[in-house]
Amino acid sequence: MSRPMNDEEVAGELNKMVAFIRQEAMEKAREIKVKADEDFNIEKSKIVRAETLAIDAEYAKKRKQAETALKIAQSTQTNKSRLKLLHAREQHLSDLFTNARNQLLELSKDEQKYEDLLKSVIVQGLLSLLEPSATVYSREKDVALVQKAVQAAQAEYKDISGRDVQVDVEGNLPDNSAGGVKLISGNRRITIDNTLDERLRLLEDRMLPEIRTDLFGKNENRKFYS
């Protein structure tokens, strides 16, 4: 039989047990700390990554907004410049046609040239109507000159068509018009506008694309020209 432990031996065994328990506790505490540090680092990494992604997303959003704002500003400025250029071009064209009309007004001051012009447009109108009678409208101040032109036009009309035509002259066109005449058929159903204002308007419509090209160059954005 083993003998009972004395007090010193009991104390020694107790000390061993205490040391073992302390060692176990320290190791457990160390494991807990390591695990806690790992969990903390993992959570910290998640938070840092989430915040980084949020910052990147916010930066991308603001960058896109800035790029969009810049494009809008550039587009607005481009449109303003284009509109300003178009306005300047239209003003230039308007000035050209205004000058052309002023030259037409000067034409009527040369009586012989104006009478020849009146005869030509009256003959054209009579040939378009091919009616036995017609009325010629002119400015009041042109009535006497138009009556002379009508006589010559009647003779030329007969030479061309082989027909006689009765022509009356009335001075009811506006005095501020450029001149020329309107012809009305005898039955009042057909009107031929051979005023100089109308001739200029038709010329503007027909020649405007060509004039634009001559003045400003070919429009690269235009696909069709007919």
Automatic annotation (TrEMBL):
InterPro entries: ATPase_E_C, ATPase_V1_Esu. PANTHER family: ATPASE H+-TRANSPORTING V1 SUBUNIT E1A-RELATED. Keywords: Ion transport, Transport. GO terms for cellular component: proton-transporting two-sector ATPase complex, catalytic domain. This is V-type H+-transporting ATPase subunit E. The keyword Cell cycle does not apply. Belongs to the V-ATPase E subunit family. GO terms for molecular function: proton-transporting ATPase activity, rotational mechanism.
